[in-house]
Structure formats: structure tokens, C-alpha cells
């Protein structure tokens, strides 16, 4: 699950769910640079997910956290056996 700093249409934190298989696809990237420079705020800094192998070319701007889950309940936001990655930087991230 990728969480954005932006709010979704319902006013809650925007997030999107992607499978590990989709994230391993050659057309999926988690970008922090563009044209040799840090990603600008306009383009989704500090990290932007682009998953171009999914319908609609899914993208998450202003990525705040990544959460790994064994399962994702479709009708609820409950978390099951998760590891959350926060505090992204160009040199790494911290896990909670």
C-alpha cells in the first residue's frame, strides 16, 4: 500500500494498493529524481510511484509511506501483518 501526503476524494489520506508482482514489473518505478535533479514538488516530490503496467497508468504523488501486507481487505482498511516504511530519503528509509 502506498500512502500519499495528499488527501483523497473522501477527505482521508489517499492511498493505493499494488501487488509485489506489479511492483517488480520493468515499467514500475519509485522515482526520486528526474533528468538528474531531485524530483520537484510539482512532479510529486519527494517520491513518486509510477506503475505503468496497470490500467490507467497508476501513479502516487508525494509518497509518504509504503506498507507491506500479507493480505488487504477489500471492504475495510484494517491492516493484517504489516510492515510500514516511512521517512524516505535518497539514501534509504526507516521501517516501523
From TrEMBL:
<protein>
    <submittedName>
        <fullName>Molybdopterin-dependent oxidoreductase</fullName>
    </submittedName>
</protein>
<dbReference type="InterPro" id="IPR036374">
    <property type="entry name" value="OxRdtase_Mopterin-bd_sf"/>
</dbReference>
<feature type="domain" description="Oxidoreductase molybdopterin-binding">
    <location>
        <begin position="7"/>
        <end position="69"/>
    </location>
</feature>
<dbReference type="Pfam" id="PF00174">
    <property type="entry name" value="Oxidored_molyb"/>
</dbReference>
<dbReference type="InterPro" id="IPR000572">
    <property type="entry name" value="OxRdtase_Mopterin-bd_dom"/>
</dbReference>
Amino acid at each position: 500500500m502506498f500512502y500519499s501526503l495528499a488527501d483523497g476524494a473522501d477527505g482521508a489520506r489517499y492511498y493505493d494498493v499494488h501487488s509485489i508482482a506489479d511492483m517488480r514489473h520493468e515499467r514500475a518505478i519509485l522515482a526520486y529524481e528526474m533528468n538528474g535533479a531531485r524530483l520537484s514538488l510539482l512532479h510529486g516530490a519527494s517520491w513518486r510511484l509510477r506503475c505503468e503496467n496497470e490500467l490507467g497508468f497508476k501513479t502516487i504523488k508525494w509518497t509518504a509511506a509504503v506498507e507491506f501486507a500479507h493480505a488487504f481487505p477489500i471492504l475495510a482498511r484494517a491492516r493484517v501483518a504489516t510492515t510500514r516504511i516511512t521517512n524516505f530519503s535518497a539514501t534509504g528509509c526507516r521501517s516501523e
